[in-house]
């Protein structure tokens, strides 16, 4: 029962964080927080990935997949996005395609977030 609750928690929390990474730049009030979560995600993928020997490493995925393994699930993909897409649709998406789309969407969101945060900062600075 505890593992089912934790599984549900991770699905909700990790998915919400992913959606926030993708869309958090839209609202002025959440732009800076969005930039922080995007930078933390990139840090995890790059630097924690180098430390763990697993490029694209995400501790949330690691913890969630450990819970799923304790629930008897095997053959889990390396990517949370692939896992989520497969779980929601019942399909088996190509992992390379999912990883590429994930990276491109992440980079687009990061560029947009950096640009909008910089513009917002410059506007505030010019008013001083």
Kindly describe this structure.
By secondary structure, the chain is mainly alpha-helical. It has one domain. It contains 5 helices and no strands.
- Strand and helix order: HHHHH
Tally of alpha and pi helices: 5
Number of strands: 0
What is the gyration radius calculated from CA atoms? 17 Å
The amount of helix comes to over 70%
Count of the separate structural domains: 1
Rough shape? elongated
Largest sheet, strands/sense/barrel: none
Strand content: under 5%
Low-confidence stretches: none
Query: Could you tell me how far the N terminus lies from the C terminus, measured between alpha carbons in angstroms?
Result: 56 Å
Structural class: mainly alpha
Mean pLDDT: 96
List the helices and strands and how they pair.
Layout: H1 2-23, H2 31-52, H3 59-70, H4 80-89, H5 95-127
Give a brief outline of the structure.
The chain is mainly α. The chain is built from 5 helices and no strands.
């Amino acid at each position: 029962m505890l593992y089912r609750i934790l599984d549900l928690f991770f699905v909700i929390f990790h998915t919400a964080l992913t959606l926030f990474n993708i869309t958090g730049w839209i609202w002025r009030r959440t732009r800076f927080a969005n930039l922080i979560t995007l930078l933390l995600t990139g840090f995890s993928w790059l630097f924690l990935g180098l430390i763990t020997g697993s490029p694209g490493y995400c501790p949330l995925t690691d913890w969630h997949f450990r819970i799923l393994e304790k629930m008897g699930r095997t053959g889990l993909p390396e990517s949370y996005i692939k896992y989520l897409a497969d779980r929601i649709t019942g399909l088996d998406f190509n992992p390379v395609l999912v990883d590429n789309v994930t990276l491109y969407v992440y980079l687009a969101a990061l560029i947009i977030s950096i640009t909008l945060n910089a513009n917002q900062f410059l506007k505030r600075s010019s008013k001083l």
